[in-house]
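Tokens as discussed.
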């Protein structure tokens, strides 16, 4: 199936060219959910697929055709990218992960004008 083929290609590429690729987070995005109108059938098919591929990460059910689920996916991507960006900034500044970040010092309104 397509999922197994993609998994095999990612593993092959990670082994030969980019070992850290195997350690990166992965998300499962199931498209064409608009084709499954019956809610119970949809839940069953999604569960069966997740179980069949032993998926343990985030799952997004979307329909590119109708836009269903795409907003949640976009927000999750944004949050993920922002989190990675903040972690990188913290690392560059020597701030340990989870360490409290001090708020900027208070500036009186007359100091803001420069």
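Sequence:
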């Amino acid at each position: 199936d397509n999922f197994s083929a993609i998994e095999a290609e990612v593993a092959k590429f990670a082994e030969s060219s980019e070992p850290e690729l195997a350690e990166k987070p992965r998300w499962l995005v199931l498209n064409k959910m608009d084709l499954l109108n019956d809610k119970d059938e949809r839940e069953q098919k999604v569960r069966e697929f997740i179980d069949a591929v032993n998926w343990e990460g985030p799952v997004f059910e979307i329909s590119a055709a109708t836009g269903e689920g795409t907003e949640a996916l976009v927000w999750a991507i944004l949050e993920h990218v922002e989190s990675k960006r903040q972690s990188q900034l913290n690392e560059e500044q020597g701030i340990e992960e989870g360490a409290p970040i001090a708020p900027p010092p208070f500036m009186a309104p007359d100091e803001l004008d420069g």
